[in-house]
């Protein structure tokens, strides 16, 4: 039975595999040695690869693109069953699609200052970093949320305190992680199983994720605005004593 199933699957040579996944022969062999992908299927002296190998190598490449270390990739793949179908592995890859609405642009400090239209002091850069508009992934380089740069520079010009930007960033990060964890758990337990049970291809899941992005961002903004208004009204009521009189 297993032999007939293997015979029905597409078999690729090592060269065809590397062309398919965009990796070098050396990398494929390295990942095989590390156990991240299974060894090739032997037919005499030749080794062949299946869609299982393609799916796992594409997942490895996706994880690398998100900055995962080799050890983290090993742990992640260790949680995927050895007999997982290529479609199931592709679903994992679809879930890794970045959620950034504004993909950062990498540039040097000179390029950043040209984009800003002026020289930027260290304090100004610190404020832009605290606001999440600029990040320094490595020495001499910056990742910039280009569409937000002028907004950030406007706050800098208005004297927005760097300490306040740092504190606000910590609030956003803490609550952002909590929201992400809860929404990911909801997606994992309710959305993903429904599409998987229906036999939907990984591309359908990817389309769902892509369409959810703007709705999720809009919902978060609306909830934030409503909460800010409610909090402000509550504070005003407390200061004027209305809260005590109405209770």
UniProtKB/TrEMBL annotation:
Entry-linked SUPFAM superfamilies: Putative DNA-binding domain (SSF46955)
Residue intervals of the HTH merR-type domain: 11-79
PROSITE patterns (UniProt xref): HTH_MERR_2 (PS50937)
Annotated InterPro entries: DNA-bd_dom_put_sf, MerR-type_HTH_dom, MerR_fam
Record Pfam families: MerR_1
Protein keywords: DNA-binding
SMART domains (UniProt xref): HTH_MERR (SM00422)
Name of this chain's protein: MerR family transcriptional regulator
Lineage, highest ranks first: Bacteria, Bacillati, Actinomycetota, Actinomycetes, Propionibacteriales
